[in-house]
Amino acid sequence: MSETELIKVPQHLAIIMDGNGRWAESKNLPRLEGHRLGSESVEKVVEACSEWGIKELTLYAFSQENWQRPTEEVASLMDLLKIFLAKKRQKLLKNKISLKAIGRLELLPESVLRELTQTIEATRHGDRMILTLALSYGSRQEIIDTANQGIRHAMSLNDPAWRFDEKTFDEWLYTEGRTAPDLLIRTSGERRISNFLLWQLAYAELYFTETLWPDFDEKELKKALLEYQSRERRFGKTPEQIQKGQSS
User: Is CATH 3.40.50.1580 what the domain over 12-247 is classified as, yes or no?
Assistant: First the structure.
């Protein structure tokens, strides 16, 4: 096998796209320019993932905490998101990519939510890859929302003994029981999960790179995927059990 040959890719890749602001500051440019270049990296990565057989890609696009940023920056980010959704809708359709979104979407500006809803609806039959944008998203909030949903369900049944099992809880999360990420990539040198998919990432492989998001391209993605395929995922089993399972 060549050192640059991809023979095993994650079925579900999650990415924390970090470093747009620092990229811009390092070049004495406005932060918005970093976000604009970051949106171009999104397009490159989406296309590469689709070509290389990744079935799900989840991008941490805007966290619940990001609402605390300066008002002008938030407004610019929302404008960029609206433009991205409108301009890339036909490309997503052509490439058979289904768009989904998770988070407290009701907090998005009405114009952004309208573009998002239209793109989700237009691409719903895409069967090549699922692209999920985490918007106004926080994993602790997701878990709290799911727990509260369970409380309301128990009250509606008038059954105080009703309990979640792991499968039901997973199905009631924003991600609605879709496959868990196999690999998480975080750019910019930070080494933390930052309230992203805390439940879903329980068994994911983690990959951290110093590369800032606007510089993250197909080459950088391939480096991460090559590192992933060199790892042995055991899920609590011994190496001998894994080997035996592969040979049977």
Answer: no
**Would you list the domain boundaries of the chain?**
12-247
Are 185 and 16 within 8 A, CB to CB? yes
Predicted confidence pLDDT, tens digits, the chain (248 residues): 345 688 899 999 999 999 999 999 999 999 999 999 999 999 999 999 999 999 999 999 999 999 999 999 999 999 999 999 999 999 999 999 999 999 999 999 999 999 999 999 999 999 999 999 999 999 999 999 999 999 999 999 999 899 999 999 999 999 999 999 999 999 999 999 999 999 999 999 999 999 999 999 999 999 999 999 999 865 565 556 556 655 55
Residue 165 per-residue DSSP state: -
Rg (CA), the chain: 19
Model confidence, pTM = 0.92
What's the CA gap between 242 and 127, in Å, rounded? 31
Q: Which are the catalytic amino acids? A: 18, 66
